[in-house]
Amino acid sequence: MSIHRQYLVFCMRGVRYGVALDSCHEVNLRSRVYPVPRARPHISGIMNLRGEVVTVIDLPSMFSPSKGEASSGAVIRLKAGEHPIAIRVDAVEDILTTENALEPPPPHLAEEHLRLIAGVIQTENGIVQIIDPQGILRV
Amino acid sequence: MRLPEQDAIRAEFVTEARDLLMRAEECVLRLESQFEPGELLELFRLIHTVKGNTSMLGNPEIGKLAHSLETELDNARQTLAPLSLSQTELVLSGIDRLRTLLDSHEGDAGKPVERVAPAAANRSIANQKADNGVSKKIKVASRHLERARSEGKTLSLITVNLARDPAADLRTSLRAFESLWNGTTVLGAMIREDRLSGLDSTDLSVPCSFLILTPGDPTEIAEINSLSPDHLQVIYSAAPVPTNLPAEVHSRVERIDHPKKTEETHLRVSVAVIDRLINLAGEAVGARNEFMQKLRKDPVLFRAGGRINSLITRLQEEVMRVRLQPLRVFFQRLPRLVRDTAAATQKEVRLVILGDSVELDKRLLDTIADPLVHMIRNAIDHGIESSAERLQKGKPAAGTLEVKAQLMGGNVVIQIEDDGRGLNHRAILQAAEAHGLVDSVRAASLSPDEIAEFIFHSGLSTKSKVTETSGRGVGMDVVRTSFESAGGSIVVRSQPGAGTQFIASLPQTLSIITCLIVRAGSQRFAIPQMNAVELVRFDPSAVAQMSSATVYRLRSRLLPIIDLKQLFTDEPSEKIGFLVVVRSERGLYGLTIEGLDNPEEILVKPLGRQLQEIGLYAGAAVLADSSAVPILDTGGIARSVNLSSSGIDSVAQSAEDAITDAAFAGLVFQYGGSEFALPVESFPRVEKRTRYQEESSLGKEVVHYTSGPIPLIRLESLLPVPASDGAFLVIFTRGGRTAAIVADEALRVGNDLPPVELGLDPGSPILGRCVVDSRTIVVLSPEVLLNGGAS
Asked: How many CB atoms within 10 Å of residue B290?
């Protein structure tokens, strides 16, 4: 018997990433993010998601510190953590349903990236790096 | 008579006791499968709490059973031995029986004594069965019962505590009983030796029982004499139809054995769920506002939306009430506290509690409970004199301590007042000088109220010795900090020889607060109005450099200032518009801001951990345009720049001073064809009239605002303007009071209006006038408007 796993696949700076679908709350395409001065660089700011104030993590900047222009992008609200958090990504692509097992992340990744990556999934279109929401919370 | 709210409190106790019993049962079951000393202690603690709770119900049967269960468990707790099978059975059946009693108690709440031992009527021994198998018998001569039956009266036993030397007291009590209640006969009196044995020698009273025959319900007697039903045992009750006694007895017995299963009247709900509800309600209000705005263009749809509009308003109001608790929950602890403190300090104190039905957010109540206890202890220990001293001064021997709560605007005002010796202003001033809080030159010019303020400084003590009841490390500085952290304030007034009065004020709920919306560069921040003392137009010439600190001269006082933009971006503000004087636990300071938006009523949202860590924000606010802005933590900002408290001065709140500054800032609105303005210092804000319900009560119109009813002001009743049924409200606040003015349209928040030409009559609702583009703007006086148009 095979187990189907579902991942929400998105892209950042041309690289495909995924996050387990059951750890996502919702995807928001048009939410405005308001900056919070003196917050650490990987935090985009806060947004109002139907009355809830959600901390928005700037995921691309966690992977490469050089700040690209703030993409209009999409915001994925995660279920992790006591306080609501969301990650800002460049674009949401698809939902990937796969039987393939999660493989360990490639060893050449930098230490700080390894903490964010739970593993990789092989697909027909190449590999997808799967984000670990707990890793984001720990940063 | 029993009041409905007493029933509500009892119901709360019953709900809590049920919950505790359920957990106790789980404990017993776990203990049975595997013994664990901690579990046994937990079980003991639970039953102990049940006992404490149920004692409030005034049902002797429940109290006794809980007590015997506790005793049983206490023995086991001492030895820490596993419970035997028979012990487990005993505890479980005791828990079951307690549940049954709680059910029947709730169903019977109106008449707690009726079901005690009714079956004893045809026997000479009243048999009151306690439920752990021990039966307690009260021997009563059969002639008394016969008499009660033939006369159709109620026979009961009242147990009271008499002072020692009972012989003297008994006679007076006997006479008192007979003369007080017409038709009451005292058949006998006895000292309850069975209860005497349990008392220790320090107890000054002796339990004494009276056998009395009353024509009516003896509960009333107990209540007149302020005895709890605990003190009353009905042995024989006159049945409504005495001839039909057996049936009556039967039906009552049935009621005990099959108590009515009542629905739970209280639910324990997690605070997280409540917070989500509050958030959703707030969001619904926001969405509704946006919706109604769009509907305005279509009168038919607008009317149809009116129903949804008012429903959402009511929904939000009710949801906000969920977290409110009556102060009674706290106040009912006070009689005991006052009694114990008075006993420890050997004083006589009469406690007066007023306004215990005033409601307060539970979180705030928890924050201020300890400070209030501290202040009450202080008042008795230091304020109220000994009886001898009082008599010498011509005061009554017993001091009076008054604890009073009131709802004023959206604020709960709590006053603690004693008629004791008052503060020693001279000693306070000496201590303040010794601590370097004030120099001798200024000290001479301070008013008594200003001197009294020093008691809120940390480390300042005039006490020569620490007593048992106070001086245990919690000072008045902690009291003030607690009230401030709850968004409130506290002041003291004292008259030597006549007493001391503390007035504390705090918002009823933390969830919705009025905020100033300020700008620094493109960034907007919210500053809670309760943290903002004053708003003044920035005058660059008032800035001075003192050693390392930048200060601002405000009415001959120096105030440290922090540039808001520089604080967040390291770049100084380009054009400073205003100075917001804010308070922190390090004192007042000024925040310079570039611009100001319309103040808003906002719902406070928590910030995530990563943003809290910054230490500059108290939370986040969702504004009416659905943007999210951070709320500044004025205390955190003071700490982050290491603002020192020396050199910081208190600033008197004075509207006139600010307004007579060169230029004027205010909210300009239109009504009846004229333009009016309210100074920004009164935090004017614009709301749509449809958002709130209006009501006419006692000839005055009120608006049911988020914080409660506030006066509705129609300018045509004060000024010669044509009446208009404007669609907007301008809400403003001054000195803790809030009111609403009907307006046709809000024009703008003017930051640079020309100077106001002040009117001559200080009692007029018109403060003055200013002219913009050859049009006159009438500047209104918030104070006079709040006083109903006359000062």
From this structure: 13
Q: CB–CB of B172/B210 below 8 Å?
A: no
- Measured between beta carbons, which residues in chain B are less than 8 angstroms from residue A50? 283
Please report the domains of chain A, with CATH numbers, ordered by start residue.
5-138 (2.40.50.180)
Most A CBs within 10 A among B525, B568, B602, B605, hence the mutation to make, goes to B605
What six digits make up the tokens of B714?
Answer: 């129609």
Tokens linked to B322: 């969920």
Do residues B357 and B407 make contact, with C-beta atoms less than 8 angstroms apart?
A: no
Average predicted confidence (pLDDT) for chain B = 74
DSSP E strands in B202-281: the ranges are: 205-214, 232-236
CB contact under 8 A, A38 and B616: yes
Q: What is the pLDDT of residues B696-710, one digit of tens each?
A: 867 788 888 877 788
Q: How many angstroms away from the CA of A73 is the closest CA of chain B?
A: 18
A93-110 per-position pLDDT tens digit: 889 998 888 888 887 777
Closest-CA distance, A56 to chain B, in angstroms, reads: 10
Binning pLDDT at 50, 70 and 90, where does residue B42 land?
confident
Confidence of residue B404 (pLDDT cuts 50, 70, 90): very high
Q: CB within 8 A of B365, min separation 6: which ones?
A: B325, B327, B329, B330
- Asked if A53 has any chain B CB less than 8 Å from its own CB, the reply is yes
Q: Give burial (CB, 10 Å; 0-12/13-18/19+) of B540.
A: exposed
User: Region B679-690: what's the mean pLDDT?
Assistant: 82
| C-alpha span between B371 and B486 (Å, rounded) | 12
ipTM given for this complex: 0.89
According to DSSP, the β-strands at A5-12 and A15-20 are: antiparallel
